[in-house]
Amino acid sequence: MTLESILPPERTLYGVTGGSKKRLLEFFSTFIAQNTPSLDSQEVFSRLIGRERLGSTGIGNGVAIPHARSPHCKGPIAGFMRLKDAIDFDAIDGEPVDLVFVLLVPEEADDTHLSLLAEVAGVMNQGSVRQQLRHAETQQALHDALIDAIRHHQPNDDD
After folding, report:
1. Phi, psi for residue 39 in degrees, rounded to 5
2. What are the phi and psi torsion angles at 8 (to 5°)?
3. Which residues is 61 bridged to in the sheet?
4. Alpha-carbon dihedral 104, 141, 91, 95, rounded to 10 degrees
5. 127-136: long-range contacts (C-beta < 8 A, 24 or more apart)?
6. What are 103's strand-pairing partners?
7. In a 3-state reduction of DSSP, which class is residue 136?
8. Which of 71, 102, 138, 140 could form a disulfide with 107 if both were Cys (CB 3.0 to 4.6 A apart)?
9. Helix or strand holding residue 156 (H, E)
10. Listed residue (12, 11, 20) closest to 86, CA to CA
11. pLDDT tens-digit profile of 89-118?
């Protein structure tokens, strides 16, 4: 299971109006449920906001990685949003967030969940990657830049 395989172009959103953390998570929950029949938007939102109550998923440098487990999730699902305007996300550095990588995993996905989260954090902690994502001018360019960063971050399996 790779990040690339769970993030199709249609789940990379460009120029999303955030407003607030709650509104953004509601938007994503509705969006993902419309595209994934097994998911209920209220249940997804409840789980994402519940995870935020444990501590913000804003990791700093304008990046947040909201994530949650869902019993209705058959496999890991990823989504990426570049916000039109940065929003307060209670990030660890106090800075507003404009790059949001959302991860939903099945209830029982322990190692997969942790390794995918670690991979997202590793990719998003690179200043050059954040810069490329912020300068992408279309949804396709945004997806291409993110997938390119993911590919270059992964260890080569052929070695």
Report:
1. -100, 145
2. -75, 160
3. none
4. -170
5. 127/61, 130/61, 130/62, 130/63, 130/99, 133/82, 133/99, 134/82, 134/98, 134/99, 136/14, 136/82
6. 67, 78
7. coil
8. 71
9. none
10. 20
11. 999 999 999 999 999 999 887 787 889 999
Among 5, 2, 15, smallest CA distance to 142 is for 15
Work out whether the CA dihedral 139, 60, 17, 70 comes out positive or negative. positive
Q: Which residues lie across from 83 on neighbouring strands?
A: 16
What pTM does this model have?
0.93
Establish whether 113 is a catalytic residue: no
Q: pLDDT tens digit string along 33-83?
A: 998 888 999 999 999 999 999 999 999 999 999 999 998 888 999 999 999
Residues in CB range of 35: below 8 A, 6 or more apart? 10, 11
Residue carrying structure tokens 């209830």: 107
Residue 14: other Cβ atoms inside 10 A? 18
Among the listed residues 67, 72, 143, 153, the single catalytic one is: 67
Please tell me the distance from the alpha carbon of residue 119 to that of residue 101, in angstroms, as a whole number.
11
Q: CA torsion 55→45→66→153, rounded to 10°?
A: 160
